[in-house]
Recover the amino acids of this structure.
């Protein structure tokens, strides 16, 4: 049974082309938010009109002065620039939508639709890769995409997404999300998301799809402040901890663009694949409370991800960037490397 298969040349070419266009789209969207986000118009103040800029999602405003030939020209430039960026964004989105069926036909559409929509929402809010990163099985979509391989479907099947919250980073809240935090963001994706009554760190929709909020284990801080949450809303998720997640904020981040089941791109930010493999192997060997069936899958994922890291991504477990991980993690590297090397010589 071949758990990892290399993509063919045509699939790799089409994936690279789509990712390049997606990078252009993200750049244009960032330019639109930074330079042309929100509104600009003349507003009456007493007996005069002033040119006012109101950034999107902010209560602040900036005045450019009274109506004059100069401020009228400023407004014209803003309107023209905004239209130009919007046209570019629309054009790039259309190109990606047109190419999506080809990517889907090549089997590159891998990320489940709801998972992709949740991750995109976190990305659109500016949370992904700053305060939040993707953990768990969905990280494998990023690893396989960057390595130009396909992992056996049984290894990536999951009905949830795990999110790690780095509370050291400040979250910027806007709109409805500012009041309801993560649960508010999820409800903009699917209104049926609610916090589970038995697990305050879990949100579930009407089909049973779950989102779990995790935080690194820090007993002293939790005793002082309690578990983290993204907002003060009573229904927002309250992060839970696992022992093996304690050091994950010290792991390098890993970013890749995968494709959802429709063939549309989704940016995934997760932990370095070597850190992922080491964490899974640590769980296998040290977590006596782990469900036996899950332990089997943990071991399989550790082995597969280690092989992707070393054989396809050419990453070394001796890299100094992993020095922030505990020695108990790093000591498992030799076992993973030996297993990956053995598999690479199998028929």
């Amino acid at each position: 049974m071949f758990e990892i298969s290399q993509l063919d040349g045509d699939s790799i070419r089409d994936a690279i082309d789509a990712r390049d266009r997606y990078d252009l789209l993200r750049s244009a969207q960032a330019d639109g938010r930074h330079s042309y986000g929100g509104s600009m118009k003349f507003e009456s103040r007493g007996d005069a009109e002033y040119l006012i800029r109101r950034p999107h999602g902010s209560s602040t405003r900036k005045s450019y002065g009274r109506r004059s030939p100069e401020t009228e020209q400023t407004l014209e430039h803003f309107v023209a620039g905004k239209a130009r960026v919007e046209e570019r964004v629309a054009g790039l989105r259309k190109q990606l939508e047109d190419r999506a069926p080809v990517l889907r036909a090549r089997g590159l559409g891998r990320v489940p639709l709801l998972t992709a929509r949740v991750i995109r929402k976190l990305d659109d809010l500016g949370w992904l890769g700053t305060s939040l990163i993707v953990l768990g099985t969905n990280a494998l979509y990023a690893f396989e995409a960057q390595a130009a391989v396909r992992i056996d479907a049984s290894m990536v099947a999951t009905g949830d997404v795990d999110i790690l919250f780095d509370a050291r980073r400040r979250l910027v809240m806007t709109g409805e999300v500012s009041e309801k935090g993560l649960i508010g963001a999820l409800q903009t994706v699917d209104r049926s998301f609610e916090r589970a009554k038995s697990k305050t760190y879990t949100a579930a929709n009407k089909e049973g799809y779950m989102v779990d909020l995790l935080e690194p284990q820090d007993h002293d801080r939790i005793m002082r402040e309690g578990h983290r949450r993204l907002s003060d809303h009573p229904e927002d998720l309250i992060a839970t901890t696992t022992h093996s997640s304690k050091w994950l904020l010290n792991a390098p981040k890993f970013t890749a663009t995968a494709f959802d089941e429709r063939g549309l791109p989704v940016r995934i930010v997760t932990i370095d694949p070597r850190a992922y493999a080491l964490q899974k192997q640590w769980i296998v060997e040290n977590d006596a409370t782990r469900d036996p069936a899950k332990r089997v899958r943990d071991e399989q994922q550790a082995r597969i991800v280690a092989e992707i890291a070393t054989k396809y991504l050419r990453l070394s477990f001796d890299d100094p960037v992993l020095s922030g991980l505990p020695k108990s993690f790093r000591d498992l590297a030799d076992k993973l490397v030996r297993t990956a090397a053995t598999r690479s010589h199998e028929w």
In short: The first strand starts at residue 4 and ends at 6.
